[in-house]
Amino acid sequence: MDYCVNLSEQYGGAVRLNGPYGDTVYVSDPRALHHIVVKDQHIFEELEDFIVSNKLVFGEGLISTIGEQHRRQRKLISPVFSTSNMRRVLSTVHDIADRLASTITAKLPTDGSHSEIDVLPWLSRCALDSICNGVLGYSSNSLSVAEDDAYAEAVRSVGFLIGKFCLLRPFVLIVTRYCSPYWARKVLDLVTAPWIPTKFMRDIREMRRIIETMDCVSRKVFAEKKATMEADDMLCRDGDSILSMMDIMLKANTMSFNVTRLTDAELLGQMNVMIFAGVDTTTSAIARCVYLLAQHPCIQARLRSEISDAMKSSRYQEDGDIPSAELPYDVLMGLPFLDGIVKETLRLYPSLPLMVRTATKATTLPLHFPVRSRSGEPTSTITIPKGTQVIISILAANRHQGMWGADANEWRPERWLSSPLAVPPDMDTPVGREDVTSTPRSTPVLGVKDGVHFPSVYSNMTTFLAGSRSCIGFKFAEMQMKQVLATLVLRLHFSLPTQRNAQGHVKEIQWKLKGFHIPVVKTPAGDGVTPQVPLNVRLVRNDDFA
């Protein structure tokens, strides 16, 4: 992670690198990023092997399509994640977050002392249940059972295996390009044959099993919901009833015109993509928040007090009840310090630190901050030959000291409390372009300098990108993070591990950047490989408030 940030700090917002696929340009300059993801996004497309691989794993979802098909899908799905729909599913997320807090509480000593708990698998189960129930309308109940069912286990494993197989994408592209579906399956049968004993081949076989499991359950859920739709049950429901995102999407699709309506294959693809995109990324973000709160007890206490104060005026909480952060949507989303903690964590530690595009034709990129050319002279424009791979450094952009200040690499949630309320217009924003700028008017202006800011749909940071390939579910992710954090902090206190092992070593958590941010325990107290976030957890006491 430090390398990714230092590269931009040392050489500027556009760095030309030499790699196995020729020149690659590493970009974190705000004006250049605006052209890549918004103004000239039709020139900078996803890599073909990325699209093909995603289609094989998830089907014809948003991350597997380009061009007109992608625009048609996004036009239908974008309204599904509206604020009004977030209000509908908040109670579902709250119930799951409350179940998470109760599950962890049951593992704690009743005398108020702490116990060391690896919170990562429980946060993962919570994220899975929230996505499955809130998005799919499928009850995974992974928090309520001792072991995951086959589908839950598959969803929690697919992201890790995809990361391991990134280098195989060019070979997958070759097979799909030059082989018919029949022969492509024959090749797959050959490489996944059980008589090949290597670990790599076992991983490929496991990946195939996971894909088949996800596909089987998705088809079953989809068939059930489609049958309900055809019986007109859902169309007759009260508009205020709680629906999953998939219910809302199916209803919108049924009411759309034939030319814009999505096929069954496309709807199945959206189901798979939403689950994959929401579980690992949200788990990582919430785990990072909890870890940071454990590192900063004063900030944890201040957050707990803010939530408690909000609950005192809530009609849902009565004296003697077990604390439950059941706040109305507008109250939850408007808590300023909770909002600052979530924003600051997503800024410093974006779940997807890097994205890659390829230039479909020769072009130039303007820069806001000049860089040094090969001749040694400063330049504000760089040439991009056709076929050049462009790395979008979300991580470096979110830590750009020229835009965020000298303390850009520090985690300071309070920075979001003192920023003025105004949002400048986007640079060269095309009128009517979908999702070019949807930053709320009340969002604090950070990451802005001389009227220039990063292309964004969320608080001027590039965490969720911008343009037609921005994260479509960021509102759901933000709501889920806030609800889970509010629920946990109100009932539980977190601190870093203190217990020494037989060799006298205390567990120290390290976050490795491998596609996602992966938390491990550093050696010698841990193996440095197994994902985990062990923390001391106890029940909240009166002196745990600010």
Find the structural class using helix and strand composition: alpha+beta
Q: What is the number of beta strands?
A: 14
Total of helices? 18
Mean pLDDT: 86
Biggest sheet details:
5 strands, mixed
Termini gap: 33 Å
Family: Belongs to the cytochrome P450 family.
Pathway: Secondary metabolite biosynthesis; terpenoid biosynthesis
Protein name: Cytochrome P450
Subcellular location: Membrane
Structure description:
- Pfam families: p450 (PF00067).
- One of its GO terms (cellular component) is membrane.
- InterPro entries: Cyt_P450 (IPR001128), Cyt_P450_E_grp-I (IPR002401), Cyt_P450_sf (IPR036396), Cytochrome_P450_monoxygenase (IPR050121).
- The protein is of the alpha+beta class and 546 residues long.
- It is 47% helix and 13% strand.
- A 5-stranded mixed sheet has the order 1-2-8-5-3, with helices on both faces. It has a 3-stranded antiparallel sheet with strand order 4-14-11. A two-stranded antiparallel sheet has the order 6-7.
- The longest helix has 32 residues, at 199-230.
- Residues 421-444 have low confidence and may be disordered.
